[in-house]
Amino acid sequence: MATTASKLPSPARHDSLGIPMHAPGSRLSKATNKYKDTHPVPEKPHVGPDIEAYKSAHSKTVGPHSDAWWAQQARENLSWTRDFTTVRTGGFPTAEELKEGQDPSTLPITWFPDGNLNACYNCVDRHAFQNPDKTAIIYEADEPGEHKYISYGMLLNEVCRVANVLKGMGVKKGDTVTIYLPMTWQAAAAFLACARIGAIHSAVFAGFSSESLRDRIIDCGSTVLITADEGRRGGRSVATKVIADQALKECGDANPVKHVLVLSRTGSKTVAEQHFTPGRDVWWHEAIADVPAYCPPAEVNSEDGLFILYTSGSTGKPKGILHTTGGYLLGALLTVKYVFDVHPGDKFACMADIGWITGHTYIIYGPLALGTTTTFFESTPVYPSPSRYWETVSKHGLTQFYSSPTAVRLLRKLGHQHVQDHDLSSLRVLGSVGEPINPEAWNWYSEHVGKGECAVVDTFWQTETGSIVVTPLPGAIETKPGSATVPFFGIETQVLDSMTGKPQEGENVEGVLCIKNPWPSIARTIWGDHKRYIDTYLRPYPGYYFTGDGAARDEHGYIWIKGRVDDVINVSGHRMSTAEVESALLLHNGVAETAVIGTPDEMTGQAVNAFVTMKPEFTYDSEPALAKELVLQVRKIIGPFAAPKKIFIVGDLPKTRSGKIIRRILRKIVAGEGDQLGDLSTVAEPEVVEVIKKKVAESA
Ligand code: WTA
């Protein structure tokens, strides 16, 4: 069984949990499992040797100990230019405090509010001073063989120059900068350059359409856009600059952008000759050559905005989630350290895209704040072959590998022959995020990638939580495939009865997943709409933060995430609202009404299915051609990842007498439960249901 922390060979120092910080990491011991179906834990981890050690450590980080613990972690792990005297203000409002009429701005949550620090200094300078040649970023470019190692010294130079360019463009502390970049390493320099001068970045996933980019630029009012000539993915070029130009054009009079900084990723001649607007557009490489090599980091308040990231909620308009500096950075750093058991010398790899929260926290801020080596993976898991991930792991000697259930399911389906011939012995921790992972995929990941010797961490969190909130800790928590297991340090989860809002006590309970007290990396607001923040997260269950997910807690206290209980669809870990897809379809001139639902999908977790009725005057040649046109419509308005898998063109939709579409019925029919619809007395015209059943059956 695992060695206890105290028996380790004289560690250099201990942190506030009494956990040795410089012990080397290790793979799993072949220990006997305590619970049936659980998996063992590694030796010499940060936390261990078992769940009792976790419980004891966790109990010192919550309740009355919470603020003191976070304060100690903040001081131990981050470099402050002014120490804080207050740890936290605010909390989740009670029912009384939430009464209508109360100004929600009187209830802010802050962490370390009078402390000052700079996120970029914490992620770059302090490590560059200590070890300028250490690799900060492994950039694995789309084409195999085209990789680069960027040292902390090189990163500091690039960041400073970009920061000076932004300053020259008039960007000031508190201003927003939109970043629309592919997965090239310079994206880290763009993010951190904003942080360096106290500007708030708003990164938009490079797979979003010009319409989505336009809306996000207008919503946060950026005067500068940072983009690239083209992206590269899976051997193909993506017309990044053309889309960005289109977005700016579509902003019309509302266009706030004055300057566009363009990275030459591919050196595209077409972009240089035809899609470059002199005066407004500036080449990255030319601009950085013209400015000083050093830019002092701005002194930023802990509660100043670090970034905005748009995410989907129950309604059509995406929400600009705002994260602030000190608390977010602390959550990102600590979760990298403990959840992935990161030790000095490790090479951490998160395969997400920097356009989503996972990329923000686990490609950029978390690993770099900790001073570890991080990986920018530009390609896809199957380019040029399904061995790409494993070639990348063995080539660079990666120690932690963080991916998604969809990627694991895909690679499992393609066969383990693609994994077996690669040396994966450097790996110690395998992570999963974004959607529930089914036990088959979990076991394949553990056995074929981890060879039974890696800890598998199924990590639950959200754009809004900033960093992981429910997860196993390698070394302490024996895992059960399919369960995200236990709350992270400082996090108190609660499964509430969805109807009464009361905590579900005891074993084997189910309800909605909520969190009891604020933690440092919780989102502070929705950009420009604090009321919506309160209404979405804090009003549904007074006194708690509401995740929007259903969850069960088993007899060992382990949490099993059941998926969203609201109108959010999760396709391959990409989050979108049914309303967003519906709005995109309604922009088609022939569409009268539409109802979008998420349906279970073996590969992508969920898939988008859309029911559409057409305007009586609208004529079309064939249903398949029209369905194709409608799919294109969604790709164009939102982006390719939101494309409906199936479109059903129908005469009418099931509605209540007051005209509300009953999506529950549509969900059941598509799930093959059309004969178990239950009471249909609320349906205004029950014959509509029969027609839809027939239509769905025909398409199967
Ligand atoms: C889902 C991604 C099950 C969940 C970091 C959540 C998960 C939404 C898991 C957030 C997991 C994330 N198991 N479901 N381990 N991780 N989810 O904001 O529904 O893109 O609410 O953040 O993804 O998606 P977001």
Automatic annotation (TrEMBL):
It is an enzyme of class 6 (ligase). Residues 125-524 form the AMP-dependent synthetase/ligase domain. Gene3D superfamilies: 3.30.300.30, N-terminal domain of ligase-like. InterPro entries: Ac_CoA_lig, ACAS_N, AMP-bd_C, AMP-bd_C_sf, AMP-binding_CS, AMP-dep_synth/lig_dom, ANL_N_sf. Keywords: ATP-binding, Ligase, Nucleotide-binding. Its EC number is 6.2.1.1. Transmembrane segments: none annotated. Pfam families: ACAS_N, AMP-binding, AMP-binding_C. GO terms for molecular function: acetate-CoA ligase activity; AMP binding; ATP binding. This is Acetyl-coenzyme A synthetase. It comes from Rhodocollybia butyracea.
